[in-house]
Amino acid sequence: MDMKQNLDPGATDGRSYSLNDMVRTGCKDCEGCSACCQGMGSSVVLTPKDMYQLALCLGTDFSQLLGDKVELQVEDGIILPNLRMGENENCVFLNAQGRCSIHAFRPGVCRLFPLGRSYEKDGIHYIYLVNGCKKTDRTKVKVRKWIDTPDIEKEEAFLIKWHGFRKAAIEAARAGEGEEREARGKAVSMSLLKTFYLLPYDTHRDFYEQFEERLIAAYGELKKMYTSFGI
User: Fold this and answer.
1) What is the pLDDT along the chain (231 residues), one digit of tens a residue?
2) Short-list 174, 195, 219, CA closest to 74
3) Which residues pair with 17 in a beta bridge?
4) Contact status, residue 26 vs residue 141, Cβ threshold 8 Å
5) What is the DSSP-derived secondary structure letter of residue 135?
6) In this structure, how many other beta carbons lie within 10 angstroms of the beta carbon of residue 178?
7) Dihedral, CA atoms, 75, 80, 85, 89, nearest 10 degrees?
8) Which end of the chain, N or C, is less surrounded by CB atoms within 10 Å?
């Protein structure tokens, strides 16, 4: 998960990790434990890459997943999609055996846990949430191996750009007051959702190339909104 707020003292081990550092995350393939897939509320926020992966895995698109597998939430003034929790607050992708049915295509937040991600001036750092995993006999694993993401350097570059755009979108949505602010927030959210989520991705093309194209268009739309709202 992204570190968007101050953590309670003792929530982490106080260290900052890079991709090549070792961290105590090994849980012997969970061995039937699915505690981290339950009661997560709206915390599994989906990035555009997550949606691309889900479309690839399920052979569907964002609009077909809305309601059943994915829901929308307001976060920091803009609307973003997150995984739904189903019966008994279990992730909707958790099967009857307590295993993830989309494990190979699971969202980035799920890949990270029990790590967090922090955006610093020199790039992404990783944080270990000491009480995140219920297992008590965890072993050390290299961060790069734990995240288990092909082209991880490309992934980090994408995440930094996505993080930057989200910050710009939040700033635009929060400008002004009252009805004007509400209208701006809706306009920014709809533009973001349409550009990065509702418009289907070509699963035969490289995701990162498609994201770069959409990012240019999205910043262009954001600039237009700044002008139209007189910001």
Assistant:
1) 554 344 554 688 889 999 999 999 988 888 778 888 888 888 899 999 999 999 889 998 899 998 889 999 998 889 999 999 887 888 999 988 888 999 999 999 999 999 999 999 999 999 999 888 887 788 999 999 999 999 999 999 999 999 999 999 999 888 777 788 888 889 999 999 999 999 998 888 999 999 999 999 999 998 887 666 555
2) 174
3) 126
4) yes
5) -
6) 7
7) 0
8) C
CB contact set of 70 (below 8 Å; sequence gap of 6+)? 46, 62, 81, 82, 83, 84
Q: For residue 170, give the amino acid letter.
A: I
- Whether 1 and 42 have beta carbons less than 8 Å apart is answered as no
* Rg of the chain, C-alpha, whole Å: 18
For residue 45, give the amino acid letter: V
Q: Using CA of residue 108, residue 113, residue 119, residue 123, what is the dihedral sign?
A: negative
Beta strands in 21-135 (DSSP E): 22-26, 70-75, 78-83, 115-120, 123-128
Rounded CA gap, 209 and 205, in Å?
Answer: 8
